[in-house]
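Practice problem: predict the structure.
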Amino acid sequence: MDTATIYRISGKVQGVGFRYFVSTTAQHLGLTGWVKNNSDGSVVGLAEGEHGLIVSFLKELKVGNRWSQVEGVENEPHSYSGEYKSFEIRY
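Answer:
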């Protein structure tokens, strides 16, 4: 069953290639949605796809890439829209 989540990652996640990491992880899992830097230093986004793949995605976000230092991952369910055809980095 397809589902969606809004997520926010805090820690050292800007200026370290984290949005690219999020995007490639989502694409690898076949998820759609977006990611962007937030003005408070966090990274936020929305992911849509199969529930089990969303769970795997969130686990990967908790680990981060080698240059990041993830301190927290918050997420909340969101209504699945199916409007996204790919996963994009927003600026």
